[in-house]
Structures are given as structure tokens and as C-alpha cells.
Amino acid sequence: MTDIAKRKAQLEARLADLGSRLEGIEAELDSHTSRDWEELATERESDEVLEGMGLSAQQEIRSISAALARIDSGEYGFCVKCGAEIGDSRLDVVPYTPFCRNCAG
């Protein structure tokens, strides 16, 4: 298994990136003050996209936080459903996954 400290640093870096991204999304959503109907309609469409991105980021933050908790408890890298070791190739792609390949599908 890849060095846990390396995985933890990777997860913490992604968590920081997502936090910054969420701040940017919130700032953008708060910045709209247009009174023009055409501009307002365009802003609403953009807001829906931004809100979707924000929700996705929040879900990833929850997943990363759970993975960091598993690291702290010594349970990282093992499937939370069956207890099998999660392969490095799977963790390379989705480092916060709580499931092995068999239980994920």
C-alpha cells in the first residue's frame, strides 16, 4: 500500500483546494446585483451551474473528511463494508473511497 502519509497529504491538499473553490463560488453567487432582465436571466443560469458545482464540492469534502478520519483511526485502505484491502490502483483514482472494487458496484 502507498505510504499513508503521502495519501493524507494528497487528501488534505484536495480539501484545501475545494475549500478555496467553495469560497469563490459563494463570492460569485453573492455578487449578482443586475437589474436588467436579460442579464438577470443569464446570471440565474450561471448560478444554477455554480450551485451544482458547490454541491458536488461539498459532497467531495465530506468524503475526504471521512477518509481522513479513517486514516486517523487506522482503518484507511480497508473496505468499510467487507473489510477487504482496497487496492492501490483504486485509491490512486479515488483516494477517499470507502469501498473495495467488489463492494462499490
Automatic annotation (TrEMBL):
Domain named DnaK suppressor protein-like N-terminal: residues: 9-71
Highest taxon listed in the record's lineage: Bacteria
Zinc finger extent (dksA C4-type): 79-103
Zinc finger DksA/TraR C4-type domain sequence ranges: 74-105
GO terms, molecular function: zinc ion binding
InterPro entries on file: DksA-like_N, Znf_DskA_TraR
Pfam families the UniProt entry points to: DksA-like_N, zf-dskA_traR
Keywords: Coiled coil, Metal-binding, Zinc, Zinc-finger
Coiled-coil ranges from the UniProt annotation: 8-35
PANTHER family the UniProt entry points to: GENERAL STRESS PROTEIN 16O (PTHR33823:SF4), RNA POLYMERASE-BINDING TRANSCRIPTION FACTOR DKSA-RELATED (PTHR33823)
Listed name of the protein: TraR/DksA family transcriptional regulator
Provenance organism: Cereibacter ovatus
